[in-house]
Design a protein that fits this description.
39% of the residues lie in helices and 22% in strands. It is an alpha+beta fold and 649 residues long. The protein binds ligand TTJ.
């Protein structure tokens, strides 16, 4: 009776393996080189599981000249005794029963990978032959073969040549050895790629701290050993080897929560993208999933808490976002758990919802522990500083986007009412004078050459762009008029091609208010129309400070030094007029001194000038009181023309 049922069972099992051979794609996805490697990983996974559960610390992989490959571990060995239900040895069950995969019950293993869980029997089914040795005091041995059934004309897969045999040969070794030759009639190629294998082995060695994996390729007589006592900490170091790291030792932690073992390693670089790699039971999850989500939110939460505790983030500040902490982050998150469920089209994503809170909790708890270590304070401060920078860039980008959008809608409106436009249609020749004050604006309108000179008078100070919010800036009429007059748009939408005036000339008084207006305009250009400055389209008009005259002679002086020279030149009986503002000049004088291309003085604004103006505005208007005082002290007479942005005539 027992024997009969065994036989029936046996036949059913063999039919199972034949099914694998009939439709390999159903079990390993593909019969390409990827599928070929897949049947190797099914075997390697079993050995790695034994190691991951603490029963083995060495795995040898050999590629042979005959096209076969072997995997050996120094673990407990596949069970050699008769399996009570199957009535055959454990070894036979492992290699002939689909889904058995060496994991008889979860009592033997806490966690097991199994790349796709199809098990070692699939490897057997798709091999020409497979040999097993188990070392437990003596050497046990068994062999499987595929052969042509002459009666049916079909190939039978993975058939035991004989039951498992105790050879009685004594051995001091412990473990399992499996060697197989992939079936050339199944796969598109049966040539293993050692590079692919090496890459995967290296990853497995990183993921399993202290596990030694030896590789030997007999075809090339090439060997390499992988062993990382730092595990994923070494992995992170390896990933960052050619990058600029922000601190030398990666942060590392490992803890268990709700039967899930969580391990992570983190190190930041000066890069702007993140490289986070996650794994479940040594299987990569390139699309992330619940564990990665938990890790990222745990990281964000604990680092925000830290930043507040250290008062780097003030009460009024918003929390830093997950995206801010992503910048330059290199991390490995590796978890081990039971009943893994993969999701997504490619099954590259961890679906188990319970993984999320477990990983988040471990991440927060373990990071908080590390944060208490005074020696790591600098590291954490560096991480926060990096994220603060990222947040700043994020806000600036958002602002630029909003402003660009708003500017687009501005173009639709007609805001150039105050603008006295020019008639010429050649932007290369056209000049826009932005003139401080209505009275100077009036003079300029009278003096100009209408064909190529346009005048935009500014009433009062254009709004300080630094202190105000975006919406307020755009509500400011002066700024709106400038934007719509230039025609370029702003921020990310800025388009130099649409510029209507190739010279944009700021004309302001030589006093403190004038200097301020100039700085505000330069700051605006620097922030929102940087290219305009970069391409040399922004100028500062230089009205003279003095007029020296006698009879019909008139000489202008732009500073005190020049005044002395001009006085000498005009000679006895001279008169001096000091201009307090542009408005004191009549149109003819304004034309001659500041607008006539033949006689005027213009200074082209460089990007450094604009940057300096931006800094000045930021410091003068910003929150840093000490910095402001220092700046005012150092630039006490900042309304002097030559002190403003190093402009040279
Ligand atoms: C199963 O539960 C009892 C103790 O041994 C467990 C076991 O199966 N261990 C084991 C299997 N170690 N190594 C393997 C193994 C190694 C290779 C190379 C291939 C396969 C299919 C299994």
């Amino acid at each position: 009776m027992a024997k009969n049922s065994y036989k029936a069972e046996d036949i059913k099992i063999l039919e199972g393996l034949d099914a694998v051979r009939m439709r390999p794609g159903m079990y390993i996805g593909t019969t390409s080189i990827k599928g070929l490697h897949h049947i190797l990983w099914e075997i390697v996974d079993n050995a790695v599981d034994e190691a991951a559960n603490g029963f083995a610390d060495k795995i040898d992989i050999v590629l042979y000249k005959d096209g076969s490959v072997s995997v050996e571990d120094n673990g407990r060995g596949i069970p050699t005794d008769i399996h009570s239900k199957a009535g055959v040895s454990g070894v036979q069950v492992v290699f002939t029963q689909l889904h058995a995969g060496g994991k008889f019950s979860s009592d033997n293993y806490n966690f097991s990978g199994g790349l796709h869980g199809v098990g070692a029997s699939v490897t057997n089914a798709l091999s020409e032959w497979l040999k097993v040795e188990v070392y437990k005091n003596t050497v046990y041995s068994m062999e499987f073969r595929s052969y042509l059934n002459k009666e049916t004309g079909k190939i039978r897969s993975g058939v035991p040549v004989a039951p498992l045999k105790d050879t009685k040969v004594k051995t001091k070794k412990k473990g399992t050895f499996v060697r197989f030759k992939p079936d050339a009639t199944v796969f598109e190629t049966v040539e293993f790629n050692s590079e692919t294998i090496l890459k995967k082995i290296k990853e497995l060695a990183f993921l399993n701290k202290g596990l030694e994996i030896n590789f030997y390729d007999e075809r090339l007589d090439y060997r390499q050993t992988f062993k990382y006592d730092g595990g994923i900490l070494d992995f992170v170091k390896y990933l960052n080897v050619s990058k600029n790291t922000l601190y030398s030792e990666p942060l590392y932690a490992r803890a268990e929560k709700d039967n899930i073992v969580v391990e992570f390693a983190i190190q930041h670089t000066d890069a702007y993208v993140d490289s986070v790699y996650s794994y479940v039971n040594n299987i990569p999850t390139p699309e992330g999933g619940m564990h990665e989500t938990g890790f990222r939110s745990g990281l964000t939460r604990s680092l925000n808490d830290y930043a507040r505790e250290r008062n780097i983030l003030k009460d009024k500040d918003d929390n830093l976002l997950g995206d801010d902490f992503k910048e330059g982050l290199t991390a490995i998150v590796s978890i081990k758990m039971q009943n893994v469920q993969f999701e997504g089209q490619t099954k590259n994503k961890l679906g188990n919802p319970e993984a999320r809170p477990a990983v988040e909790s471990v991440t927060v708890t373990e990071l908080e522990l590390l944060m208490k270590n005074k020696k790591l304070q600098k590291t954490f401060d560096t991480i926060i500083a990096k994220a603060m920078n990222a947040a700043k860039a994020r806000l600036a980008a958002k602002k630029a986007k909003e402003i660009a959008r708003a500017a687009k809608s501005l173009e639709a409106q007609n805001l150039v009412g105050k603008l006295a436009s020019c008639s010429g249609r050649k932007p290369e020749l056209n000049e826009l004078f932005i003139v401080e004050g209505d009275s100077a604006g009036g003079s300029a309108k009278q003096a100009r050459v209408r064909q190529y000179q346009a005048i935009l008078p500014l009433r009062g100070k254009p709004l300080n762009v630094e202190k105000k919010k975006l919406e307020q800036i755009l509500q400011n009429e002066e700024i709106r008029t400038i934007i719509s007059a230039l025609g370029t748009g702003i921020g990310s939408e800025f388009d130099l091609e649409s510029l209507k005036f190739h010279k944009v000339i700021i004309l302001s008084d030589a006093d403190q208010d004038g200097a301020h207006i100039r700085a505000i305009l330069l700051t605006f250009f620097f922030r929102y129309m940087r290219e305009l400055v970069n391409e040399g389209h922004v100028y500062i008009g230089m009205p003279p400070l003095y007029k020296v005259y006698k009879g019909n002679t008139e000489e202008y002086a732009y500073d005190d030094n020049e005044l002395k020279q001009k006085i000498e030149k005009v000679g006895k009986g001279y008169n001096v007029q000091r201009y307090k503002g542009l408005g004191e000049m009549d149109p003819a004088q304004l034309w001659e001194t500041t607008m006539n291309p033949e006689t005027r003085s213009l200074m082209r604004v460089t990007i450094e000038d604009a940057m300096e103006a931006d800094r000045l505005i930021t410091v003068l208007m910003g929150d840093e009181v000490a910095e402001r005082k220092k700046y005012i002290f150092e630039h006490a007479n900042f309304n002097k023309q030559d002190n403003f942005a190093k402009l040279k005539r």
